[in-house]
Amino acid sequence: PAVRHVWFDFHANCKAMKWGNLAKLVEKVGRGLDRQGFLLVNDAGRVMSVQTGIHRSNCMDCLDRTNVVQSVFARRMLLRQLRSFRIISAEELDVCLGKTKTKSSLRNSFWSKKRLVSAGGAEVVNWDASADGEPSSTSSLVRSGSSSSSSSSSTSYVLKMPYEKLEKAFRILWSENADEMSLLYAGTPALKGDFTRTGKRTTTGLFMDGLHSAVRYYINNFLDADRQEAIDIILGKSA
Q1: Is 103:140 a contact under the CB 8 Å cutoff?
Q2: Rounded CA gap, 99 and 91, in Å?
Q3: How many whole angstroms separate alpha carbon 185 and alpha carbon 189?
Q4: Residue 49: closest CA among 59, 62, 40, 61
Q5: DSSP state of 129
Q6: Which long-range contacts (CB under 8 A, 24 or more apart) does 36-45 make?
Q7: pLDDT tens track for 129-168
Q8: pLDDT tens per residue across span 166-201
Q9: Reported pTM
């Protein structure tokens, strides 16, 4: 099968906390992500669609930047899935993907009161709606590039979810998973956790990254050798 390699200089593009520049990477690989699709099986066990490829992120000697990049890829795929279920409209998807700069009338263009849609044989309800079936008053379709932040660029959208509760749920899920993976691999929670949790870098996040980096240095230099020897003994690889 064909393998495509895409080079992206994370430090050069995202220095000075310009995280929105990750959109440049999404633009490079977005079509590939869309073409590979995703696995969908309905309640009756029928395969509705299959995934035909994978995206792998390799960052030299760092799992944290890999986590940040993969979170952006996961966002795009989730948005595509929501669209395939007709939970969001095509116009809403275009705004979230940064293809449409306007957000006027989006809230009223698709959602109707107590609307039910079919997704793989099961009924799905707008779980982020208020009691009357309309999107909550705090929900909005946001594109980071439209803000006045000095760190934003013309392509600084971060694939934000169309509804606030969905955005929060995604961030929590991804961040908790990243911390668990990092604890297994490096002995500390993931670095840049403030970005994956809030979408921006903070002073507290920078301080915690420094602390976790120091802990990782200690573990790497004083504890890992014994751990690796124990693993080798368990696997029968000890000399």
Answers
A1: yes
A2: 9
A3: 10
A4: 40
A5: B
A6: 38/77, 38/80, 38/81, 40/81, 40/84, 40/120, 41/120, 42/120, 42/121, 42/122, 43/120, 43/121, 43/122, 44/121
A7: 333 333 333 233 333 333 333 333 333 445 778 788 888 8
A8: 888 998 998 999 899 889 888 999 888 887 788 778
A9: 0.67
